[in-house]
């Protein structure tokens, strides 16, 4: 049987059972469309999640108190580790790879201004925070380059907080009460929206040392280290450890490169996509 005979035989078989042929063709088309749709959804979810993490930059290392051991426990969780401090953040500026460093603390606080009040997420940040995380100021300025250990009582509002407390009025120069302390408003951040469930507009920023007083804390929650792009991450991590071990006497902290976390996240998303398809 030559190719022409094979084609005629197949064509007669298809036309002789038209309903079965239609159903088979529909099944193939639906299957192909489903695969294409699932592939597009999986790729879209992966791009969305990764973009949420990378919009603040990828050349960032986060240092947290307490050494994570092989069982996943943190010495910092039981208070046996030395705290990370503002002074540790200042010391890390001496690294040959440092671009910006930022000692951070976060808490929940009630704020008051213009006879209005609301409870928001309040961040204690250093003056390099906006540069470290690519955050933009809409009006005014971010926290100035004061001595991080004794900064002035300034505050910067998130876009939503500005609207809730001041409406369309200019808040610059107004007084803001955070907990039991008063701050002078010097800036308003550009709208950022929700990132992984966190509303970055319903926030207020103040100097880290002032936030430690407001939240009655002795140490910061983390230090963010922005390094010069294209530097090998192993060299960056090694230099961070060298500086902090010299200060602490031992490695009682955890160094978490963002690029390493992004690689792990990307691997997890690829695995989830694989099981999603099958």
Mean pLDDT: 80
Secondary-structure content class: alpha+beta
The number of domains: 2
User: Per DSSP, what share of the residues sits in E-state strands of 2 or more residues?
Assistant: 25-35%
Low-confidence stretches: 70-79
User: Major beta sheet, specifics?
Assistant: 6 strands, mixed, barrel
Helix % is: 40-55%
Widest beta sheet: strand line-up: 2-3-10-5-7-6
| Intertermini distance | 39 Å
Counted beta strands: 12
The topology string of helices and strands comes to: HHEHEEHEEHEEEEEHEHEH
> What is the global morphology?
flat
Q: Nearest-angstrom radius of gyration?
A: 27 Å
- Helix segment tally: 8
Short descriptors:
278 residues; alpha+beta; two-stranded antiparallel sheet
